[in-house]
Queue: 2 jobs
Job 1
Amino acid sequence: MGLFDFFKKKETAPEAQEALDRGLEKTKEGFLSKITKAVAGKSTVDDDVLDNLEEVLVTSDVGVSTTLKIIERVQSRVSKDKYLSTSELNHLLRDEIQLLLAENNSNDFRKFEYGDHKPYVIMVVGVNGVGKTTTIGKLANKLKNENLKVVLGAADTFRAAAVEQIKLWGERVGVRVVAQAMGSDPASVAFDTLQSAVANKEDVVIIDTAGRLHNKIGLMNELGKIKNVMEKVIPNAPHEILLVLDGSTGQNAFEQCKQFTEATDVNALAITKLDGTAKGGVVIGISDQFKIPVKYIGVGEGVNDLQLFDKKAFVDSLFK
């Protein structure tokens, strides 16, 4: 089996679907109850229903521009079909949101060509508190369970807690960790990690980075230095820059995404903590606004609760 071939599974396993349904329960309850109220007393989708639906989507953290895009699509369908009952609205919304996600993730990770990269290098970025280190640990566990050799680089050297947390995750899931003393040069840690990964013939390298959202120039310089050092060891590394966002922060996640995409070439997203919030609509809005594939979602606290993002399964779960 080739590197990451297991990511190409087209169907979500029943147990993963159940975990997804549980993780999105709060979002689903809020979303569907708001839609029910939006159409109360109406038999057809008219301007009032569309206005109410617009409010539902905005308050579900889908975002204003994405909401307007969805409303425009629904409006077009209503005009085309001449008559659309409110009972059909859920089905129509589900279809349009799935189409939107499909368009925005044209370079879907399940179709992404990883080529012959070995080791495959992932640099993980994001602010403190979003679940960045936990996501790294869970991702390492997922890859190790597929018989891939994984090494973690503790390049968030500004916080002793971050280094210790990475080490604990390494012990917990049984993967090697490369670390230096607190305050060490993060680029030096990344360099050592990649060198040792090559020497040990490991399959995947995951590099943690500092979670400080300081000024854009400082962030750009710091991440740029780490990238430049990596390329000295492995050409074109990192192959993936994964931005971790906390789904429970709603609109603040949009701002974080904006800051990091301006600072570095983010090409994948992980959205965490969806199980503890009713703001799961943020997945739809961020995907639409930034045109970056959502690769992973966190739907629980367990080590196996980091899921590969399946657009159809996600939207279906919202409308069950």
Job 2
Amino acid sequence: MNKESNDDIIAATQRWLERAVIGLNLCPFAKAVHVKKQIRYVVSSASTPEDLLKELINELELLAETSSEKIDTTLLIHPHVLTDFLDYNDFLDIADETLEELDLAGELQIASMHPQYQFADTQPDDMENYTNRSPYPTLHLLRESSVDKAVAAFPEADQIFEKNIATMKKLGHEGWNKLWLNAANDAGYAKNPDES
């Protein structure tokens, strides 16, 4: 099996963002930063959680020091480490502790996406899990100020989670798979996050 290039990994992530996150309106705030090219895509070469943590610290510091017009949000994609969701989930506690240690809690936050994402009290194949299923394990670094602005501009922000679950249940497994088949036809290749 050929190892995917960083360009392939970023392209698959961008297709997922366009097809699922924006296309299904799972995050009403994503389209604006995507169109303005304010999303930083970073493919980590880390093969251990320790190496990933070092990269996470670098990316958190870079985001904090850079103007939001240049980088509003960062997707730190790590295809070679924490591929098991339970390991990834455990790492999220370390990531949040790191935010505190860097004095960035309240300024930045970390959202989680993974090909095997599973909410508590759900079965692995339950459709609501697909709201957070990305092609590769990904740490999404967000600015609190951008989240606050987006929530203020979107009056029903507190209902996004429930709407997303309803969207995914209506779409079903067949609709989810067709989404990636259509993307493959359009782009010549697309990675279904469920295939990881």
